[in-house]
Design goal:
Elements: E1 21-22, H1 35-39, H2 43-65, H3 67-77, H4 89-97, H5 104-129, H6 141-152, H7 157-186, H8 189-192, H9 200-213, H10 220-247, H11 257-266, H12 268-278, H13 286-290, H14 292-295, H15 297-325, H16 343-374, E2 384-385, E3 394-395, H17 397-414, H18 417-445, H19 451-473, H20 481-510, H21 515-522, E4 528-537, H22 546-555, E5 557-570, H23 577-580, E6 581-587, E7 590-598, H24 605-614, E8 624-634, H25 640-652, H26 658-661, E9 669-677
Parallel strand pairs: 4-5, 4-8, 5-7, 8-9
Antiparallel strand pairs: 1-5, 2-3, 6-7
Helix pairs in contact: 3-10, 3-15, 4-5, 4-12, 5-11, 5-15, 6-7, 6-18, 7-9, 7-16, 7-17, 7-18, 7-20, 9-17, 10-15, 10-16, 11-12, 12-19, 18-19, 18-20, 20-25
């Protein structure tokens, strides 16, 4: 670990108000938060300013790219995952009934449950409600956590636990989605030519390996095809559905919720299991909220109501009509919708759609990991940008290869999409339940709604989600344990890392020297002054960096200009130009520089130094040196604490080189190390 990090500045004559930040410290939460600062936040003004900023950002984006282009992009990226659900959702729900030849009660009941799940969870919860909860235009469970914490005004361990659990469950979802999506599409090969059944697994593995290998080159160019291809896919879904609905037009009566209620009442012995399969229809709904920052509310809403929702509903109705007319088609109702001569084309389109859906989840995993690093839940990871000028286009090698290993293991272990369906629901339902809890917390604590009103609004949705979660938990022994184990491992790692950071910071702070005391003492120092500027990175701007103390102790020199540089992570996704840097004169030859980055940004100190110049800091790059204090934690606890300490120490070994992480000039970095007992 390092304890020093540079930060951008603003003119000392007119310092900006202190931004809402995560307590500073290498982009990680400090052991000593500033509750007074947080309690003093004017939540109403803050939320109003963020909403206005979001409107400006998305308004400008829409004018620049065009609403149509953004809507088409949303179709490809946001709805890629939920768009592949018709391949297996209705099929698995019908199978779960255990009826050999399903009749109107089963088919219309399941269709009603599918349709109303899409309306209640996706349309009401995500489109109408959560899309309004943005953090400077960004969405997702980590953004919602920061909003809730800002509304509370202090650190909340229960909220922290919810955020960690949600991010951990997403890790399980990110591994299962590519596996089940690609596998279910390739299984259609067996319908084209039964002899190809033996090649389903090899082809699936080859597609997945290729998908993860190309991540290194970035997806900016490939992503241009996502929208048109996915739009064509949704049109095909709608067309197939309408074609079969003509044969059995009365299937449209499934819109009545009475069919769903009657099914649950008259099939109590299997209703709970069927609900777990029905939930497969709304997997991918979380992407609506997570990708809010990429497209904005209006394009996402237009895509949902203008194409995605009608196409999904029509296709499910078409599958139901087909099974009512030909019960034998229930074994693979989706691919059975296509005439024999068109089946190869449908299989190819399904494969392309599942690859796109998988790509969206992989990109989401990269973004989630970066946000977790910036919020202090994970060690520094090596993050590479793959598209010039597009901060969202990133590649994290460690996350990529861990995901690939998990996906390949899932495919080889379960061997079929039917078996994988049992493992799919728990991670997704768990994330949705946690999102609802955080959303209600934010609604109440921000003052948007009173507690009774918020609970009345959320209760129906929460009740449905808890039933879905309970239903999926019944599949624990059949594969549901996979996401639970994955989430437990990831959650423990995140929790141990966060705990270790707090302990190290607390330990260091006890031995720290206050900056004010040090600056006064240095006015009478006999240390030799050498030309140039020294930047000492520090996680706590109020104490002297250990690297500065070690350099003074061993080398007996001070630079002509000494800058204490802190990198702060804001509780917003992206920092504005005004927030990026601030400079403060400390007295004598000492100054403090603070560079600020949003939690969705990768800290780039080299680029941010231009903001420091504009903020009033004068320095010559050729005579400047960056000093890093490298801390090595040593586990000293007992019992369970010793185990947690060792996990933290082990994770620290995977932390990226701070020079690379903060994008410091390599030829101007000096590292000084120390051991810290925890």
């Amino acid at each position: 670990m390092t304890d020093d990090v540079p930060t951008p500045a603003v003119p000392a004559s007119a310092p900006p108000p202190r931004p809402k930040t995560i307590p500073p410290g290498l982009g990680l939460p400090s052991a000593l938060p500033h509750p007074d600062d947080e309690a003093a936040l004017d939540i109403a003004d803050y939320l109003r300013s963020e909403s206005e900023a979001d409107s400006d950002i998305h308004g400008e984006t829409a004018r620049r790219q065009g609403l149509a282009a953004l809507t088409l992009g949303a179709v490809g990226v946001v709805y890629g995952d939920i768009g592949t659900s018709p391949i297996y959702a209705f099929r698995e729900a019908i199978r779960a009934t255990g009826v050999a030849e399903p009749g109107p009660a089963e088919v219309l009941g399941i269709l009603s449950l599918l349709i109303w799940s899409l309306i209640l969870i996706v349309t009401v919860k995500y489109v109408f409600v959560l899309l309004r909860f943005d953090n400077r235009g960004e969405g997702g469970i980590l953004a919602l956590y920061t909003l809730a914490r800002l509304a509370i005004g202090r650190r909340s361990l229960p909220l922290l636990a919810l955020a960690v659990a949600g991010a951990a469950l997403f890790a399980g979802d990110a591994a299962i989605t590519p596996a089940i999506s690609v596998l279910s599409a390739v299984e259609g090969m067996g319908l084209v030519l039964p002899a190809l059944d033996q090649f389903v697994l090899p082809v699936t593995l080859a597609i997945l390996v290729l998908l993860f290998v190309v991540q290194r080159g970035g997806t900016a160019k490939v992503a241009l095809l996502f929208g048109p291809v996915t739009a064509l896919w949704f049109l095909a879904l709608a067309g197939l559905g309408i074609w079969h609905m003509v044969e059995t037009p009365w299937v449209i009566s499934a819109f009545s919720p009475l069919w769903g209620m009657q099914f649950l009442v008259h099939h109590t012995e299997v209703a709970f299991i069927v609900l777990g399969a029905v939930f497969l229809a709304v997997t991918g709904g979380e992407a609506l909220y997570a990708d809010l920052g990429h497209f904005g509310r209006r394009p996402i809403k237009l895509a949902w109501f203008g194409l995605v929702l009608p196409a999904l509903v029509l296709n499910y109705l078409g599958q139901g009509a087909l099974v009512l007319a030909h019960p034998e088609a229930m074994a693979n109702s989706f691919f059975a919708m296509a005439p024999p001569q068109a089946l190869p084309i449908l299989v190819l389109m399904a494969t392309m759609a599942t690859v796109i859906a998988s790509q969206a989840v992989i990109s989401g995993a990269f973004s989630m990991a970066r946000g977790a690093v910036q919020l202090g839940f994970l060690p520094r990871l090596r993050i590479l940008h793959t598209a010039e000028g597009q901060s969202g286009q990133i590649y994290i090698p460690s996350v990529n290869w861990l995901l690939l290993a998990g996906v390949l293991w899932l495919v080889l272990s379960f061997e079929s999409s039917e078996a994988l369906a049992s493992a799919y629901g728990i991670a997704v339902t768990g994330t949705m339940v946690l999102t609802t809890v955080l959303g209600v917390t934010y609604l109440i604590r921000s003052g948007r709604l009173s507690a009774p009103a918020a609970l009345v609004l959320a209760l129906p949705i929460a009740a449905v989600e808890w039933v879905f979660l309970a239903s999926n938990l019944t599949k624990f022994a059949d594969g549901g344990y996979v996401p639970v184990i994955a989430a437990t491992v990831v959650g423990c790692a995140m929790g141990c890392w966060w705990r270790g950071v707090q302990l190290v910071n607390a330990r260091v702070h006890k031995l720290a020297v206050p900056v004010e005391t040090f600056v006064r003492a240095m006015q009478k120092s006999s240390a030799h002054v050498i030309p140039g500027t020294a930047f000492f990175l520090t996680g706590d701007p109020d104490v002297v960096p250990s690297a500065l103390l070690h350099n003074l102790k061993h080398n007996r020199v001070l630079h002509e200009q000494t800058v204490l540089l802190t990198v702060e992570t804001l509780r917003v996704p992206y920092a504005t130009a005004e927030e990026r840097a601030s400079v403060e004169a400390l007295g004598g030859r000492f100054q403090r520089l603070t560079l600020r980055f949003g939690f969705m940004e990768t800290p780039n100190v080299s680029r941010a130094m231009a903001h420091a110049r504009r903020a009033g800091l004068k320095f010559d790059v050729m005579t400047s040196t960056f000093f890093l204090g490298r801390r090595r934690a040593v586990a000293t606890g007992k019992g369970v604490e010793l185990m947690l300490d060792k996990i933290y120490v082990a994770l620290a070994r995977f932390s990226a080189d701070p020079t690379d992480f903060y994008h410091l000039p390599r030829d101007r970095v000096v590292e000084l190390g120390e051991r810290v007992a925890i």
